[in-house]
Structures are given as structure tokens and as C-alpha cells.
Amino acid sequence: MLKVDRQLKKTSKSSLEVQLGNSPKRKNGLSERGKMAREAILQAAERIFAEDGINASLRKVMAEADVNVGAINYHFGTREDLLREMLERRVSIIVGERLTLLAEAESLNNPAELRDIVAALLTPTFRPDRWNDEGWRNYFKVQAHLRSQPSQKNYPISANLFAKQHQLFVEAIGRTLPDLGKTELFWRYYCLMSAMNQSVTNPYRIRELSGGRCDTRDSAAMMKAMIPALVGMLSAPPTMPVDD
Predict the structure, then answer these.
(1) Is the domain defined by 87-244 classed in CATH 3.30.450.40?
(2) Do 115 and 231 touch, CB atoms closer than 8 A?
(3) Do 50 and 36 form a contact (C-beta atoms < 8 A)?
(4) What are the residue ranges spanned by the domains of the chain?
(5) Fold match between domain 31-77 and domain 87-244
(6) Distance between CA atoms of 1 and 115, rounded to whole angstroms?
(7) What is the domain class of 31-77 according to CATH?
(8) Digits of tens for pLDDT over the chain (244 positions)?
């Protein structure tokens, strides 16, 4: 069985961009001061978007970053471009770790064990050090805003960043569960993602439902409960006709 409580391997930024289907942005030529301003804008946007939502005032972002009115346009272009790059720097890390774990699971067993596939998907999101970091907490709040208030402009930005990951995980689950038709496979993957996303976007709900017995802040306990439950859901007998 794949071990998931070890130090995850680091993947280079350039290789992650290839995996995500993106090309590296051109940031060469910026002065040190320009690079610092750019990073300040990204950090400020993450904080402000987490607090106020995706449609938060860009003037508030500029004030937080202590940059002038033209800085966002100069460094990023539009609000959507700023949001995309702000998300990319976190998504590339999470997706890179997931794909590393998935590749390891498939190197151990062919096809990979279902438990290892599920663990590869969940582990990077629920690492304790991640939830103890303000920047990562802000990122998860931004994702919660995107899911609770999707728009034609903003939601596809996040969805497209995860598209390659979804394809690879669906294919891996399909190899492990060959008796499932494509339609049922996608429904079950949707349930898997919904359970994970609910834990991210509304982490307090389980505390309320359980009267405090269950707490998402205890990531080890949460993973211990969720992984076998999700494996059971995925591996249940087929209920739909097999289709291609």
C-alpha cells in the first residue's frame, strides 16, 4: 500500500506547467522592485479575494499591496488574468503532488490499488501543514467562493487548471474498476470530488452535525474515515449498463 504520510517530492515549476497544459508566463526583464511588486499584488489579491469574494475591489488589493493604480494592469492585465495566476501558483503545487502520488501508486501495482488512488487525490489537500498556513487557507477560501458563486468568467479559470488531473484520475480509476461503464465511472468520480470539495468549502458542517465528535482540523482522523468510505462508494457493484 502506498504510504501517504511522508515528505512529498518536489516537482519543478516548468514540468508542472507542461502537466497542466500551460506554457510558462514571461516574467523576465522585471527589476527586483518589479518582482517584489508583482508578488505583493498576488499575496494581497489572495487575502482580499478570500475575505471579500472574487469580485472584491481591486483598489483594495492595490492599497493592501501598496502599489499604484496601474500596477495590476501592467503586471497581469485583467482581473481574470490576476485570478488565474494567483490560482495557478497553488494549483500547480497541489496537482503536481497528486500526479506524483498517482504515478507512485501505479508503479507499485498495475493497475493501482483504489485506496492509493483516493489517497493520492486527497492527501495534498489535507496536509496539516497546509491548513496551518495562512496563504493556503486563503487559497481554499478563494476556491470556496468560486464554487459557491460561479460565473461564466471566473469558474472556468479554476476548472481548466484541474482538467488534466481529472482526466488522469478518471482513467486510473477506470483501469482499476474495468467493470464500470464510462457514465457510472464519471458519476462516481463526481461523488468523490464532491466529498472532498465539501470538506474544503464547508469544513465546519461536520462539527455541527456530529456535535463536535468529528473535526476536519484533525486531518489524520478525517482521512482515516474518508478514504475507506470513498473506496467503498467507488467499488460498489455497477448499477448502470456498461457504455463507452
Answers:
(1) no
(2) yes
(3) no
(4) 31-77, 87-244
(5) no
(6) 8
(7) mainly alpha
(8) 554 444 344 443 443 443 444 433 445 567 888 899 999 999 999 999 999 999 999 999 999 999 987 999 999 999 999 999 999 999 999 999 999 999 999 999 999 999 999 999 999 999 999 988 999 999 999 999 998 887 878 888 989 999 999 999 999 999 999 999 999 999 999 999 999 999 998 888 999 999 999 999 899 999 999 999 999 999 999 999 999 7
Total-model pTM: 0.84
Placement of cell 492527501 in the chain? 123
Tell me how far apart the alpha carbons of residues 137 and 116 are, in angstroms, rounded to a whole number: 25
Residues in the chain: 244
